Amino acid sequence: MYVKFWGTRGSLPYSLTAEKLKKKLQKALKESLKYDLKSDADIDAFIKNKLPFAVRATYGGNTPCVEIHSGNKLVICDAGSGIRDFGTDLVRQQQEKNVAIPSVFHIFISHLHWDHIQGFPFFPQAFVPGNKIYIYGYHDNMEKIFRYQQNSANFPVSISDMQADIQFVLLDISKTYTISGFTVKGIKQNHPGVSYGFSFEKDGKKVVYSTDAEHRKGLENQKYNFLEFFKDADLLIFDAQYALLEAFDTKKNWGHSSNILAVELSVRANVKRVCLFHHEHTSDDNFLDKFLADTRNYLSMYARENPLEIWLAYDGMKVFCD
Ligand SMILES: [Zn+2]
Ligand SMILES: [Zn+2]
Predict the structure, then answer these.
(1) Ligand nearest to the backbone CA of 189
(2) How far apart are CA 96 and CA 268, in angstroms?
(3) How would residue 100 be classed by pLDDT, with cut points 50, 70 and 90?
(4) pLDDT tens by residue, 288-308
(5) pTM for this prediction
(6) What span, in angstroms and rounded, lies between the C-alpha atoms of 278 and 209?
(7) Which ligand places an atom closest to the C-alpha of 280?
(8) Proximal ligand: closest to the CA of 196
Protein backbone atom coordinates (compact mmCIF):
# COMPACT_ATOMS: atom_id res chain seq x y z
CA MET A 1 0.00 0.00 0.00
CA TYR A 2 1.21 3.52 -0.69
CA VAL A 3 -0.11 7.02 -0.24
CA LYS A 4 0.54 9.87 -2.62
CA PHE A 5 -0.08 13.45 -1.57
CA TRP A 6 -1.45 15.77 -4.26
CA GLY A 7 -2.46 18.65 -2.00
CA THR A 8 -1.20 19.32 1.51
CA ARG A 9 -1.94 22.97 2.23
CA GLY A 10 -4.77 24.10 4.50
CA SER A 11 -7.40 26.75 3.95
CA LEU A 12 -5.93 28.39 0.85
CA PRO A 13 -3.50 27.42 -1.92
CA TYR A 14 0.07 28.71 -1.60
CA SER A 15 2.29 29.82 -4.44
CA LEU A 16 6.06 29.73 -4.76
CA THR A 17 6.69 33.24 -6.07
CA ALA A 18 9.55 34.35 -8.34
CA GLU A 19 11.19 36.12 -5.40
CA LYS A 20 11.04 33.02 -3.18
CA LEU A 21 12.45 30.85 -5.98
CA LYS A 22 15.28 33.33 -6.56
CA LYS A 23 16.27 33.09 -2.89
CA LYS A 24 16.40 29.29 -3.12
CA LEU A 25 18.61 29.50 -6.23
CA GLN A 26 20.93 31.98 -4.56
CA LYS A 27 21.40 29.70 -1.57
CA ALA A 28 21.88 26.60 -3.74
CA LEU A 29 24.43 28.24 -6.05
CA LYS A 30 26.36 29.70 -3.14
CA GLU A 31 26.55 26.28 -1.49
CA SER A 32 27.57 24.61 -4.77
CA LEU A 33 30.74 26.75 -4.90
CA LYS A 34 32.16 24.61 -2.10
CA TYR A 35 32.09 21.50 -4.30
CA ASP A 36 33.71 20.42 -7.51
CA LEU A 37 30.63 19.39 -9.48
CA LYS A 38 31.58 17.93 -12.85
CA SER A 39 28.73 15.69 -13.98
CA ASP A 40 24.95 15.45 -13.84
CA ALA A 41 25.40 12.69 -11.26
CA ASP A 42 27.55 15.01 -9.10
CA ILE A 43 24.86 17.70 -9.33
CA ASP A 44 22.07 15.25 -8.48
CA ALA A 45 24.00 13.98 -5.46
CA PHE A 46 24.77 17.54 -4.33
CA ILE A 47 21.09 18.54 -4.56
CA LYS A 48 19.95 15.41 -2.73
CA ASN A 49 22.56 15.30 0.02
CA LYS A 50 23.81 18.82 0.60
CA LEU A 51 20.76 21.05 0.29
CA PRO A 52 17.95 21.21 2.83
CA PHE A 53 14.47 20.43 1.50
CA ALA A 54 13.43 24.09 1.76
CA VAL A 55 16.24 25.02 -0.65
CA ARG A 56 16.07 22.14 -3.14
CA ALA A 57 12.28 21.80 -3.27
CA THR A 58 8.99 23.14 -1.97
CA TYR A 59 6.29 21.69 0.21
CA GLY A 60 3.78 22.82 -2.36
CA GLY A 61 0.66 24.77 -2.59
CA ASN A 62 -2.40 22.68 -3.41
CA THR A 63 -5.25 22.27 -0.96
CA PRO A 64 -6.00 18.75 0.36
CA CYS A 65 -6.13 15.72 -1.88
CA VAL A 66 -4.56 12.36 -1.01
CA GLU A 67 -4.48 9.15 -3.04
CA ILE A 68 -4.35 5.81 -1.20
CA HIS A 69 -3.30 2.93 -3.41
CA SER A 70 -3.20 -0.80 -2.83
CA GLY A 71 -2.67 -3.29 -5.65
CA ASN A 72 -4.82 -2.01 -8.48
CA LYS A 73 -7.34 -0.37 -6.10
CA LEU A 74 -7.39 3.24 -5.04
CA VAL A 75 -9.39 5.74 -3.05
CA ILE A 76 -9.04 9.50 -2.85
CA CYS A 77 -9.44 11.70 0.22
CA ASP A 78 -10.82 15.16 -0.39
CA ALA A 79 -11.13 17.18 -3.57
CA GLY A 80 -9.02 20.26 -2.86
CA SER A 81 -7.02 21.81 -5.70
CA GLY A 82 -4.63 18.81 -5.60
CA ILE A 83 -7.24 16.65 -7.33
CA ARG A 84 -6.60 18.52 -10.56
CA ASP A 85 -2.92 17.42 -10.48
CA PHE A 86 -3.96 13.86 -9.58
CA GLY A 87 -6.22 13.79 -12.65
CA THR A 88 -3.78 15.42 -15.08
CA ASP A 89 -1.06 12.99 -13.97
CA LEU A 90 -3.33 10.08 -14.93
CA VAL A 91 -3.85 11.65 -18.36
CA ARG A 92 -0.07 12.09 -18.71
CA GLN A 93 0.53 8.44 -17.81
CA GLN A 94 -2.03 7.35 -20.36
CA GLN A 95 -0.48 9.49 -23.10
CA GLU A 96 3.20 8.89 -22.36
CA LYS A 97 3.13 5.25 -21.28
CA ASN A 98 -0.03 4.16 -23.04
CA VAL A 99 -1.26 2.49 -19.83
CA ALA A 100 -4.88 1.84 -18.96
CA ILE A 101 -6.07 4.28 -16.30
CA PRO A 102 -9.02 3.87 -13.95
CA SER A 103 -12.52 4.83 -15.04
CA VAL A 104 -14.10 4.49 -11.57
CA PHE A 105 -13.13 6.84 -8.74
CA HIS A 106 -14.03 6.75 -5.05
CA ILE A 107 -13.61 10.14 -3.35
CA PHE A 108 -14.10 10.55 0.42
CA ILE A 109 -14.91 14.05 1.64
CA SER A 110 -13.88 15.01 5.18
CA HIS A 111 -16.16 18.05 5.18
CA LEU A 112 -17.45 20.74 2.88
CA HIS A 113 -15.15 23.65 3.59
CA TRP A 114 -14.01 25.18 0.35
CA ASP A 115 -10.40 24.00 0.56
CA HIS A 116 -11.62 20.38 0.53
CA ILE A 117 -13.91 20.59 -2.49
CA GLN A 118 -12.59 23.47 -4.62
CA GLY A 119 -10.62 21.24 -7.02
CA PHE A 120 -13.60 19.17 -8.13
CA PRO A 121 -14.72 21.51 -10.96
CA PHE A 122 -11.22 21.00 -12.46
CA PHE A 123 -11.01 17.21 -12.04
CA PRO A 124 -10.38 16.06 -15.63
CA GLN A 125 -11.90 12.59 -15.15
CA ALA A 126 -15.25 14.19 -14.27
CA PHE A 127 -15.45 15.35 -17.88
CA VAL A 128 -14.91 11.91 -19.43
CA PRO A 129 -18.08 10.16 -20.64
CA GLY A 130 -18.33 6.63 -19.25
CA ASN A 131 -16.33 7.41 -16.10
CA LYS A 132 -18.04 6.77 -12.77
CA ILE A 133 -17.29 9.00 -9.81
CA TYR A 134 -18.58 8.20 -6.34
CA ILE A 135 -18.37 10.98 -3.76
CA TYR A 136 -18.77 9.73 -0.19
CA GLY A 137 -19.32 11.70 2.98
CA TYR A 138 -21.27 12.01 6.21
CA HIS A 139 -22.73 15.50 5.69
CA ASP A 140 -26.32 15.29 4.51
CA ASN A 141 -25.95 18.57 2.57
CA MET A 142 -22.90 17.28 0.64
CA GLU A 143 -24.57 17.01 -2.79
CA LYS A 144 -26.24 20.39 -2.37
CA ILE A 145 -22.93 22.11 -1.54
CA PHE A 146 -21.09 20.43 -4.45
CA ARG A 147 -23.82 21.55 -6.85
CA TYR A 148 -23.89 25.02 -5.34
CA GLN A 149 -20.13 25.37 -5.85
CA GLN A 150 -20.74 24.94 -9.57
CA ASN A 151 -23.75 27.20 -9.97
CA SER A 152 -23.52 29.58 -12.92
CA ALA A 153 -22.29 32.52 -10.83
CA ASN A 154 -19.29 30.50 -9.62
CA PHE A 155 -18.29 28.26 -12.51
CA PRO A 156 -19.36 27.84 -16.15
CA VAL A 157 -20.01 24.09 -16.01
CA SER A 158 -22.59 22.64 -13.63
CA ILE A 159 -22.23 19.19 -12.05
CA SER A 160 -25.06 17.95 -14.27
CA ASP A 161 -23.13 19.06 -17.37
CA MET A 162 -19.99 17.14 -16.43
CA GLN A 163 -20.00 14.05 -18.64
CA ALA A 164 -18.99 11.43 -16.08
CA ASP A 165 -21.65 9.63 -14.05
CA ILE A 166 -21.32 11.36 -10.65
CA GLN A 167 -23.01 9.77 -7.63
CA PHE A 168 -23.17 11.20 -4.12
CA VAL A 169 -23.23 8.57 -1.40
CA LEU A 170 -24.23 9.51 2.14
CA LEU A 171 -22.45 7.30 4.69
CA ASP A 172 -23.64 6.23 8.13
CA ILE A 173 -21.01 6.86 10.83
CA SER A 174 -22.08 3.77 12.79
CA LYS A 175 -21.30 1.44 9.88
CA THR A 176 -18.14 -0.12 8.44
CA TYR A 177 -18.00 -0.31 4.65
CA THR A 178 -16.02 -2.18 2.03
CA ILE A 179 -15.33 0.21 -0.83
CA SER A 180 -12.84 -0.34 -3.66
CA GLY A 181 -11.43 -3.28 -1.67
CA PHE A 182 -10.71 -1.16 1.44
CA THR A 183 -12.43 -1.54 4.81
CA VAL A 184 -13.58 2.00 5.57
CA LYS A 185 -14.59 3.51 8.92
CA GLY A 186 -15.28 7.09 9.95
CA ILE A 187 -14.96 9.23 13.05
CA LYS A 188 -16.63 12.53 13.90
CA GLN A 189 -14.14 15.36 14.51
CA ASN A 190 -14.28 18.66 16.36
CA HIS A 191 -14.23 21.35 13.65
CA PRO A 192 -16.52 24.25 12.72
CA GLY A 193 -19.44 22.59 10.92
CA VAL A 194 -18.04 19.15 11.93
CA SER A 195 -15.54 17.13 9.92
CA TYR A 196 -14.89 13.38 9.68
CA GLY A 197 -11.74 11.30 9.67
CA PHE A 198 -11.45 8.07 7.69
CA SER A 199 -9.61 4.83 8.33
CA PHE A 200 -8.74 2.61 5.34
CA GLU A 201 -7.56 -0.97 5.84
CA LYS A 202 -6.50 -3.52 3.25
CA ASP A 203 -4.25 -6.58 3.31
CA GLY A 204 -3.20 -5.96 6.92
CA LYS A 205 -2.22 -2.31 6.34
CA LYS A 206 -3.99 0.72 7.79
CA VAL A 207 -3.98 4.37 6.74
CA VAL A 208 -5.87 7.03 8.70
CA TYR A 209 -6.77 10.39 7.16
CA SER A 210 -7.62 12.82 9.94
CA THR A 211 -7.55 16.45 8.92
CA ASP A 212 -9.37 19.55 10.12
CA ALA A 213 -9.73 18.21 13.64
CA GLU A 214 -9.17 20.04 16.91
CA HIS A 215 -8.35 17.73 19.81
CA ARG A 216 -9.38 19.10 23.16
CA LYS A 217 -12.11 17.44 25.21
CA GLY A 218 -11.13 14.13 26.79
CA LEU A 219 -7.65 14.21 25.30
CA GLU A 220 -5.93 13.02 28.49
CA ASN A 221 -8.36 10.14 28.87
CA GLN A 222 -6.86 6.67 28.32
CA LYS A 223 -10.00 5.80 26.41
CA TYR A 224 -9.97 8.92 24.19
CA ASN A 225 -11.83 7.65 21.12
CA PHE A 226 -9.17 8.76 18.62
CA LEU A 227 -6.60 6.45 20.25
CA GLU A 228 -8.65 3.44 19.16
CA PHE A 229 -9.28 4.96 15.73
CA PHE A 230 -5.55 5.63 15.13
CA LYS A 231 -4.40 2.39 16.79
CA ASP A 232 -1.49 0.62 15.06
CA ALA A 233 -1.88 2.71 11.89
CA ASP A 234 0.92 2.23 9.36
CA LEU A 235 0.37 5.86 8.40
CA LEU A 236 -1.54 8.60 10.15
CA ILE A 237 -2.21 11.79 8.17
CA PHE A 238 -2.73 14.39 10.87
CA ASP A 239 -3.86 18.01 10.90
CA ALA A 240 -0.88 19.94 12.29
CA GLN A 241 -1.73 23.38 10.99
CA TYR A 242 -0.42 25.11 14.11
CA ALA A 243 2.31 24.96 16.71
CA LEU A 244 1.05 24.00 20.18
CA LEU A 245 0.80 27.50 21.61
CA GLU A 246 -1.24 28.78 18.67
CA ALA A 247 -3.55 25.75 18.81
CA PHE A 248 -4.23 26.24 22.50
CA ASP A 249 -4.19 30.02 22.60
CA THR A 250 -4.68 32.47 19.71
CA LYS A 251 -6.25 29.88 17.40
CA LYS A 252 -8.27 27.98 19.96
CA ASN A 253 -11.61 26.81 18.52
CA TRP A 254 -10.43 27.38 14.93
CA GLY A 255 -10.77 23.64 14.42
CA HIS A 256 -7.17 22.58 13.90
CA SER A 257 -4.47 20.75 15.77
CA SER A 258 -0.72 20.92 16.38
CA ASN A 259 2.53 19.07 15.68
CA ILE A 260 2.91 18.31 19.39
CA LEU A 261 -0.43 16.50 19.53
CA ALA A 262 0.52 14.66 16.34
CA VAL A 263 3.48 13.19 18.24
CA GLU A 264 1.68 12.48 21.51
CA LEU A 265 -1.40 10.85 19.99
CA SER A 266 0.74 8.83 17.54
CA VAL A 267 2.92 7.48 20.36
CA ARG A 268 -0.08 6.69 22.55
CA ALA A 269 -1.86 4.92 19.66
CA ASN A 270 1.26 2.98 18.55
CA VAL A 271 1.28 4.57 15.10
CA LYS A 272 4.22 3.67 12.82
CA ARG A 273 4.44 6.83 10.71
CA VAL A 274 2.77 10.20 11.02
CA CYS A 275 2.57 12.83 8.29
CA LEU A 276 1.98 16.40 9.40
CA PHE A 277 -0.66 17.78 7.07
CA HIS A 278 -2.91 20.79 6.26
CA HIS A 279 -0.05 23.27 6.52
CA GLU A 280 -0.82 26.84 7.39
CA HIS A 281 -1.04 28.77 4.11
CA THR A 282 1.21 31.56 5.42
CA SER A 283 4.08 29.18 6.31
CA ASP A 284 6.99 29.22 3.88
CA ASP A 285 9.34 26.33 3.16
CA ASN A 286 12.01 27.46 5.66
CA PHE A 287 9.40 27.61 8.41
CA LEU A 288 8.08 24.14 7.53
CA ASP A 289 11.61 22.63 7.50
CA LYS A 290 12.10 23.96 11.03
CA PHE A 291 8.60 22.85 12.07
CA LEU A 292 9.48 19.27 11.04
CA ALA A 293 12.84 19.40 12.84
CA ASP A 294 11.16 20.79 16.00
CA THR A 295 8.56 18.03 15.86
CA ARG A 296 11.23 15.33 15.60
CA ASN A 297 13.10 16.94 18.50
CA TYR A 298 9.93 16.89 20.54
CA LEU A 299 9.58 13.14 19.93
CA SER A 300 13.11 12.63 21.25
CA MET A 301 12.07 14.36 24.48
CA TYR A 302 8.57 12.89 24.78
CA ALA A 303 9.41 9.27 23.95
CA ARG A 304 13.10 8.88 23.12
CA GLU A 305 12.99 5.20 22.26
CA ASN A 306 9.79 5.31 20.24
CA PRO A 307 10.42 4.30 16.59
CA LEU A 308 7.69 6.63 15.23
CA GLU A 309 8.65 8.11 11.85
CA ILE A 310 7.62 11.74 11.40
CA TRP A 311 7.24 13.37 7.99
CA LEU A 312 5.83 16.61 6.76
CA ALA A 313 3.68 15.98 3.71
CA TYR A 314 4.44 17.81 0.47
CA ASP A 315 2.70 17.84 -2.89
CA GLY A 316 4.02 14.84 -4.84
CA MET A 317 5.29 12.94 -1.76
CA LYS A 318 4.82 9.18 -1.86
CA VAL A 319 4.87 7.14 1.36
CA PHE A 320 5.06 3.36 1.24
CA CYS A 321 3.36 1.54 4.09
CA ASP A 322 5.08 -1.84 3.60
ZN1 LIG B 1 -9.22 22.56 5.61
ZN1 LIG C 1 -12.22 22.95 7.51
Answers:
(1) 2
(2) 45
(3) confident
(4) 999 999 999 999 999 999 999
(5) 0.95
(6) 11
(7) 1
(8) 2
